[in-house]
């Protein structure tokens, strides 16, 4: 069958041959055994309901074997034979261009060059899934190929519930992931309900089809690193940044360090992903010996090099070794997947990668004990460096949260509301007050033609828009504008594209709308093909996360999730092509609610109308909440937005004289 026919077929009418397990692919670790015998039976019945009864006798032992071996039923047999990648939108079958755009984005999330564990349908973060199994993928793609612009597909944690009648201005797809009753959002609840096949962890942009490879975080990391050096009044040149994690998103760290111009040392325990990131040129060198690494760092410092050095081993060994050698670390962080500490997100020191994976599945209690012991050592080593002047920040991966739960020395001696930890979140110190409060966040787009020349044209368009805007932009946002212009001018030369022809930059509502309008006009004029707009959930309005995105909210509301819920509801009736709302993402299941969107620009007047309505709301919803929290940058930004849009009327806070108390 052709590619189009395979998509339209959905779940095959005849069983395909079983597929061999491919050891050269980066696979998800085995999940711990958590189901009772009765629950295992239920998980198998849940999986078999996707298939006609005549196939059940053959599939049952196979699915049972997967559940025993891997802790999940992935349905490997049903992996498609075609290459998994984003194609030109014209290659997808269907009646709706919007639906075709979503198919393109789903396939990009599962591209082998993009996805962390492609055969397990996991895009990044160790457990950030697009679907729970391959039957869900096949059925979803079939529904999208049949959809008209008068229908909406509803996605329940990876399961396509079905196509429902709607209307042309409704979202074509509505996605929810992991939306649990609050009392069932503990880490083991994810293990259980995911194993049953009834819920999944969509991370942020994995289960919402908006991941664009490590580039998605490179820009934010670049801004963070640049501003971390600004905070310590030091030029990045010759400065040392130490961190960890090369899987998925955190592979962006060495690339961001190179763009910022510093020396980056990054630890990673997984040999396969370390090799991949080196081959992709996201990291310059790999080192396996600590003495050699120390010598290489001293040489780089002496020569003021811009270089990224991967250490194949545990990050704790680096912090401890650099302390022994009295090697000065300027800025430090961590980007391991500590939202998922007991299932492959963080590895214990002194135990091999292979033995750790075995212990994780066979002796989870001992594994947890070793991880917590490592977290205590990790924090202790960091404390020694910060006493010498290192600026350390939590990178929103739940490092400080899990370290505190392990009993590590990370709590502030004089805590205040929102400042419980010894070290700040990067959002508290950098991204919140400098970017989110002013409405700047990770706006992104994908060229659906798949043509590099289209991406170049969109880069040029975006740059021209920003250069025109900066002429009249207020002083308060000049630095943000300059950083963006520098970024977009260097985007092509930094080889940031992995998978789809995509780009990201930090823009405010005005910038997003003007760039989107310019794209839509260029599409209408035939200069470029259609463009998908989106953003990371890690943004001004999309995410309520008390230890990350909303960590600089100090009015006591940072544990509420009204903003994220309003964000996705508001986007859905203002013109988004698809919307998503997730439990979990970045900092972990039960720790955050986050929402996202996608929007197809096709050059039409309808697209022009929708983009203005939706993008304005998508940003200013969050600025309003930040303003009400008395964040001065947000008060400035929302007043400016009200001046620009007479229909916007936001409740402003009154400030109280502290002397009254």
TrEMBL record:
SUPFAM superfamilies: Urocanase. Keywords: Cytoplasm, Histidine metabolism, Lyase, NAD. Gene3D superfamilies: Urocanase like domains, Urocanase superfamily. Residues 213-430 form the Urocanase Rossmann-like domain. GO terms for molecular function: urocanate hydratase activity. Residues 84-210 form the Urocanase N-terminal domain. Residues 1-11 have a biased composition (Polar residues). Signal peptide: none annotated. It comes from the Bacteria. NAD(+) binds at residues 125-126, 203, 268, 395, 586. It catalyses: 4-imidazolone-5-propanoate = trans-urocanate + H2O. GO terms for cellular component: cytoplasm. It is found in: Cytoplasm. It holds the Pfam family Urocanase. Its EC number is 4.2.1.49. The keyword Cytoplasm applies. Residues 436-639 form the Urocanase C-terminal domain. Pathway: Amino-acid degradation; L-histidine degradation into L-glutamate; N-formimidoyl-L-glutamate from L-histidine: step 2/3. Binds 1 NAD(+) per subunit. One of its GO terms (biological process) is L-histidine catabolic process to glutamate and formate. Residues 1-24 are annotated as: Disordered. Catalyzes the conversion of urocanate to 4-imidazolone-5-propionate. Belongs to the urocanase family. This is Urocanate hydratase. It comes from Epilithonimonas zeae. The lineage of its organism: Bacteria, Pseudomonadati, Bacteroidota, Flavobacteriia, Flavobacteriales.
